[in-house]
Amino acid sequence: MKNRPAQDETKVTIRWDVDGKTHKAEVPELVSPFFDVLGVELAVSLLLEWGGTPLYLPRPHSILRQGGDLVDLVGADKARQLGGTIGAGHIKIPICREFLCRYFHSQGFSKLKIARKLKVSDETVRRILNGRRTSELRRLYAHRRGKAVAA
C-alpha cells in the first residue's frame, strides 16, 4: 500500500464551475488523477466514501463485476481507467477536508451543514473557509487574552 505523503506534499489546484462562477481549491497531487478520470462530482463522492482509508484499484484489463465498492460507485470502465492511470493495487485515499469544505461551500451548503457532512466542528469549517491555520488562530486568541505564544 502506498503510504501517506509528508505534510509538505505537492498540491494541485482543482477548478470547477457553479452557476457560471469558477471556484478552485488545492488537493494532494495523489488525488489529481481521480478528478481527471472521474470529474469533480464523482471524485467528491469517492473522497467522501473512502477518504482516509485504503482502496484497491484494479488492473486496466481486469474483469470486474458489480458488487465491488469502487465499481458500484464509478462503474467498471472508470475503475479500470483509474487503475491504469494511478497504478493497480491498494492506495490510501487522502481525506481532503479543505477541498471538500470549499467544494460544498461553493454548492451553497451552510457552514453547519458542511460540518455535519464532514463530521468536523463548525469552527474547523470556518477556519478552512477563512484560510487561517490553527497556529495563526492560537496566536490571535492568545494575544486577545494577553498571553504570549511562541511562533
Give the key terms.
alpha+beta; disordered N terminus; 151 residues; elongated; two-stranded antiparallel sheet
Please provide a written account of the structure:
The chain has 151 residues and is of the alpha+beta class. Strand 1 (11-18) and strand 2 form a beta hairpin. The strands form two sheets. The protein has a two-stranded antiparallel sheet with strand order 1-2. Helix 1 crosses helix 2. It contains eight helices and four strands; from the N terminus they run E-E-H-H-E-H-H-E-H-H-H-H. Helices cover 48% and strands 16% of the residues.
Task: Count every beta strand, where a strand is a DSSP E run of 2 or more residues.
Answer: 4
Order of helices and strands: EEHHEHHEHHHH
**Percentage of residues in strands:** 15-25%
Q: Based on Cα principal axes, name the global outline.
A: elongated
Structural class: alpha+beta
Order of strands, widest sheet: 1-2
Distance between the termini: 36 Å
Helix content: 40-55%
Largest sheet: 2 strands, antiparallel
Low-confidence spans: pLDDT under 50, at least 5 residues? 2-6
Mean pLDDT: 83
Helical stretch count?
8
Rg result: 18 Å
Quick structural summary:
This protein is α+β, with helices and mostly antiparallel strands and 151 residues long. The protein has helices at residues 32-38, 40-50, 69-74, 76-86, 97-106, 111-118, 122-130, 134-144; strands spanning 11-18, 21-28, 54-57, 89-92.
